[in-house]
Write a structure and sequence with these properties.
The protein is mainly beta. It contains three helices and 24 strands.
Length: 342
């Protein structure tokens, strides 16, 4: 009798402890945003302050958090091994699941929202999916080159001026795809441009992944195979490489995002140099290195500034809320999103 009673007490204690742990975890996550708001803002040369991790409620057991984007004040999270994209509120509460393919096998490695459209790169099938952002309804998918036989293998996605830019690991190129139909000129989903060409020395790509477009219109590419980040114009011309050597070196560059802290060094130059793009007033560039498990920060022209992210294990995607000065980093191994304040 005593043995049964002891076992019952032991089980009950375990349940109580589990509930307490869950409550503490829930309270901690709920308070993450409030905690961040009470942290003092940093300066250009200071690393962001780590706030904590938000555990992600995966749509299924095999899904792993991967890519991030921010639309208005909402955080969108995509997954490896899932066709679902999750939308979180400004307080990091789950609002809804947007499952593009009704549960079909997928790995959404790139996401961006523009207007009423959600664009998602599905690395498993190689396709680009277009969905209605409000309803989550799939509108169309594109995954073939103009010959209608050769398949794409898309990874990252970015948007600018009615064009969707995607990285293709099969051709090691960036593809520009029309986001609109213009009668007698171009159709939605039509391939407009691919680059770099075979003759572009020093700017060849080897397994390009994440993309991001700067406010002045440079397309930044994480070139994992060459361990570099390269900048092009949106018309496909080489622009510049990022600084190399020492702490600036990459092992596996992935997600890219921008904050709004301009470089004092570049600001000092802006009145003495004619530069209508406003590049000298733009903020820092944050680039995730998944192999080093760090985030490296550069100025607007690609000069190394600092590194942060000692808490991360396998980071991939990154998104920055410039209004609230919050940084979100997808940690695939933890299946969580790390929150930082800058």
């Amino acid at each position: 009798m005593r043995q049964k009673f002891s076992i019952a007490v032991f089980i009950l204690a375990g349940v109580v402890i589990g509930i307490l742990i869950w409550l503490i975890s829930s309270l901690t996550e709920t308070d993450l945003i409030n905690k961040a708001e009470n942290i003092e803002a940093t300066t250009f040369t200071q690393p962001p302050v780590f706030v904590g991790f938000k555990n992600i409620e995966s749509p299924d057991s095999s899904a792993q958090v991967f890519a991030l984007t921010i639309h208005e004040d909402k955080l969108l999270v995509s997954f490896l091994n899932s066709d679902c994209i999750q939308e979180y509120s400004s307080t990091l509460e789950l609002i809804r699941n947007i499952c593009l393919l009704n549960g079909e096998p997928a790995s959404i490695t790139g996401i961006v929202v523009e207007g009423d459209r959600l664009y998602a790169a599905n690395y498993r099938t190689g396709e680009l999916h277009l969905a209605d952002y409000k309803t989550g309804t799939l509108i169309n998918s594109f995954g073939l080159f103009p010959d209608q036989q050769t398949s794409m293998k898309l990874f990252g996605v970015a948007y600018r001026s009615d064009a969707i830019y995607v990285s293709d690991s099969r051709t090691n190129q960036i593809l520009a795809i029309s986001a609109v139909t213009v009668p007698d000129l171009k159709d939605e989903g039509e391939l407009l441009l691919s680059f770099p060409s075979a003759e572009t020395n020093g700017y060849q790509l080897s397994f390009p992944t994440f993309l991001a477009i700067t406010p002045d219109g440079r397309l930044l590419v994480s070139d994992v195979g060459n361990k570099e980040v390269k900048a092009f114009t949106c018309s496909g011309r080489p622009a510049h490489l990022f600084e190399k050597g020492g702490e600036a070196n990459f092992s596996a560059p992935m997600g890219i995002a921008f904050d709004n802290l301009p470089s004092p060094e570049l600001i000092a130059l802006k009145d003495s140099v004619f530069e209508p793009s406003g590049i000298y007033e733009q903020g820092r560039i944050h680039i995730v290195d998944t192999k080093l498990a760090k985030v490296k920060v550069f100025n607007a022209l690609g000069k190394y500034v600092l590194t942060y992210g000692e808490e991360l294990e396998q980071p991939n995607g990154i998104a920055i809320d410039q209004t609230r000065r919050l940084i979100f980093v997808a940690d695939t191994k933890r299946n969580a999103v790390g929150l930082y304040k800058y």
